[in-house]
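Subject — a protein and its fold
Encoding — discrete vocabulary of local shapes:
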Amino acid sequence: MHSDLDEANISVVMATYNGEHFLRKQLDSILQQTLAPIEIIIVDDCSNDGTVTIIKEYAARFSTIRYVLNEKNLGYIGNFEKGMMMAQGNFIALSDQDDIWVPSKLEKLYQGLGSHLLIYSDSELIDENDAPLHKKMSDIKNQIAYDNCLMYTIGAWAPGHTFLFKKELLDRCIPFPTIVTHDFWIGFVATCYSPIQYLPEPLVQYRQHNYNAIGADTLAKKTNQIKPSKEELQEKSRIRMRMLYEKCPPELIEQKQVFKTISDSYQNNSFKNNLTRMITFFKYRDLILAYKKKSELMKMLFCLKLFFKIDY
């Protein structure tokens, strides 16, 4: 466990896009941390509201704030990647533009990180008026210490807005794929080399509103989103599973083989592939489904369903 807070060279990386409504509160909460970051890097993705004005105002007042205004839209994954590549600290914390951090967030995460590459915490959900929704992220799905990369096979519940990780992890994540979120990728890569530490304490007020790029699924689905076809979902699943297999280091012999077996079974829906996929998921169900709040019966039914489909 770290004891000397003077060694905590933390870079906070924030990605912004049309965030004028909540940005000030989030910046204030970062600036009020009991363990102050050495820099706050803001990368704006071509906002067309008052976001840039707010960023420039804060940058003029606080020398720790650095910002970049993109000339073309990169999307939130590219935006975060660009900001992380600018980070000068030995540790990186990711920040959404619309949350509110508990004052002790960075200090508690830093003290709990120890020899791990990454630590994350629980979050308390709030609405657009800062009112609590009386729900935590851990109430929706299991938040746990991820100690095996197979726990990322189909998903995970370690959100980037609560991350603190060592910069050395970033080198292993580059380049970032666009088929999965940046925090999923960082978490998966971390589990390939070191267990992810979990702090079961809400250190972020995680705001839910209609403009979330990624929310906690507590709001109705946006009606303007185009639903991908079944074929598109299946192809995305094939690409993602192949990517996990290729990224898993050869030193993890069992996990590497499991990813290969599942990836191979995704190539088509032959009887052999379907049976292999179902059996493999069933064998490793406690790891693969660890983040889901499912009973043993529901885990087995989920595996049975994988005989008939590859997207979920």
Notes: The first strand starts at residue 10 and ends at 16. The first helix runs from residue 23 to 31. Strands lie at 10-16, 39-44, 65-69, 91-95, 100-101, 118-126, 132-136, 164-166, 197-207. Confidence is low (pLDDT under 50) at residues 218-223.
